[in-house]
Structures are given as C-alpha cells and as structure tokens.
C-alpha cells in the first residue's frame, strides 16, 4: 500500500503502471505500480562476489548482509552490473530473486530525513540500513551513532523524482 503523499513529486511514466481502474467520472480508483518506490525491496551490502566459470558460462555467488543477517545468494537474476557495496534484493512473482547494485555517493551531511552530497539533497528512507565498516567486516548501526567522526558513503536506488531514497549508509571511522 502506497499513500498518495509518498508519490508527491514523483514523475510516473506509462511503464511504471501495471494496472489501474477508473470510476464513471474518469478518476483513478485503483493504481498498481511496478515497484516505483522501492519501499518493498530489502536493502543491505554485498561484501564479496565469487565467480565460477566452466566451458559454457559463468555464475556468481554473492556474500551479503541484509540488516545484520549474513548470507550467500546464488542463482539470482542480476539487474545491471553488480558490485560490492549497497544493493537491493527483490523477490519476484515467479519465485526468483533479483539483485541490483545501488548508486554510490559520498555524503557531506545527513539527518533522519535528508542527506547532502555536494550541492544535491537526497531523501533518506525511513528504513535506511546503516553499517559501520571496520577491518573488512560490516556491523549494523544507526544514523545517530555515525553523524560525526565518520566518512559516510550512501547508496540510493533512484533519483527522488522517480521515488528513490537513500537506502544504505556505510560509515568508516575517520
């Protein structure tokens, strides 16, 4: 369920609409979107990527941390080039899993609702995943613990005008 306020300022395209119904006045009564907000995806960090090759193909296994739970993902659909760092995981209707690397920025400031990188302000997801990276390990944390004394790298899923938010923040002690 997405409230209209969550879509304020979001530009929708026809490809974003999966289904809609109209009433007798021609107003939308139901609207099903194709993952526009990203709010139902899971977010975390990819910590390691292993590649296995044979004569016919290559396959990848991803070591991940989703909210403090470490696991290995194999046999997933990769959307775009997958790199270590922030990522999104989506369970698809056909029973498969799709992962996508998030876009990376270095933050100059952050609070509970917005973050700044350069002269651009990004909205922060209310469910943002915050990690402290130390000695190659990731530890779950929170924004208030990393606001000062850390270099902050954020990962976002899409520009704000497309419903995007900062979903993952990785903090490294300065």
Essential attributes:
174 residues; mainly beta; 1 helix; flat
Can you describe this structure in just a few lines?
The protein is built from 1 helix and 15 strands; from the N terminus they run βββββββββββββαββ. The protein has 174 residues and is mostly beta strands.
General description of the model:
The protein is 2% helix and 56% strand. The strands form three sheets. Strands 9, 10, 11, 12, 13, 14 and 15 form a seven-stranded mixed sheet that branches. Strands 5-4-3-7-8-6 form a six-stranded mixed sheet, with no helix packed on it. A two-stranded antiparallel ribbon has the order 1-2. With 174 residues, the chain is mostly beta strands. Strand 11 (114-117) and strand 12 form a beta hairpin. The radius of gyration is 18 Å and the shape is flat. It has one helix at 143-146; strands at 17-22, 28-33, 42-53, 58-66, 69-73, 77-79, 85-91, 97-101, 103-106, 109-110, 114-117, 120-134, 137-141, 150-156, 166-173. The chain contains one helix and 15 strands; from the N terminus they run E-E-E-E-E-E-E-E-E-E-E-E-E-H-E-E. The model has no long low-confidence stretch (mean pLDDT 90).
